[in-house]
Amino acid sequence: MIAVRDPNGFRPLVMGRREDGSIVFASETCAFDITDTKYERDVEPGEMIVVDKNGMNSYYPLPKASPSLCILEYIYFARPDSSIFGESVYKVRKNLGRFLARELPVPADVVIPVPDSANIAALGYAEESGISYQSGLIRSHYIGRTFIEPDQKIRDFGAKIKYNVVRNVVEGKRVIVVDDSIMRGTTSRKIIKMIRNAGAKEIHLRVSAPPTISPCYYGIDIPTHNELIAATHTIEEIRKYLRVDSIAYLSVESMNRAVMDHKGGGFCNACFTAQYPVEFQSELGNQKSLFKEYQVEERVVY
């Protein structure tokens, strides 16, 4: 069995050990909880671990690179019951919500999340602001994540049947809707329309990440630049398109502070800043020769 992590560490990879001594690898630690596996450590960026009948060997066949851990793993992709990059996803998301409430307060009666990935950020927002947290949107778990669907008609249909509003939570209320991110804006628009039709007095959208302005070239299927609503529209234009009373995004600075409160930096936030840590066009062409050109460092692990 061979496990390899990219030199920049964009994606998480963790290693655990079972009681019988067998080694287990996973993207997130939540996988260990259901397999009776004890977390041992993260696989380091650029590390290759080979497990065979003779034991486990660790190699470093790739050039060292600056850590560029994907910050969107904390914001959106990872499960809240996991630890990635050495820190609890739950803690980081709650921290993002707290920073969002401090930076972008608004008078309201209730805070509701767009489930499920915004649940913890909304809880952090509610606790920091003192506004009641309620589950005003119910999500069908038979429907997957809509922004990564390849076809717009599929995304539209998925958004219609994925969520339903709890009317007595929002009717006649000033509602803060917390979402983790906005890509195209199509799903957000449909959700806002549903909440408005359920009788919400005011709707204030708060996003626990900065505007997504650039695609990802490191393993996440983020839409092209022209499809990203924040790349082609002003905040006011987005507000009008979504038909909310106000919209505000967490700043890049607050996002970085919220995450770095739990981890010492070294994150990739290119989807929010367009500052790519790796020149993807030139680097991808060189990948085939890296193993041949670099001196392999070996470390035996018992």
From TrEMBL:
Cross-referenced InterPro entries: GATase_2_dom, Ntn_hydrolases_N, PRTase-like, PRTase_dom
Q: Which residues form the Glutamine amidotransferase type-2 domain?
A: 1-54
Give the matching Pfam families: Pribosyltran (PF00156)
Which Gene3D superfamilies does this one have? 3.40.50.2020, Glutamine Phosphoribosylpyrophosphate, subunit 1, domain 1
Q: Keywords in UniProt for this one?
A: Glutamine amidotransferase, Glycosyltransferase, Transferase
Is Transferase one of the keywords?
Answer: yes
The GO molecular function terms of this record are:
glycosyltransferase activity
Q: What is this protein called?
A: Amidophosphoribosyltransferase
Its source organism is: Leptospira interrogans str. FPW1039
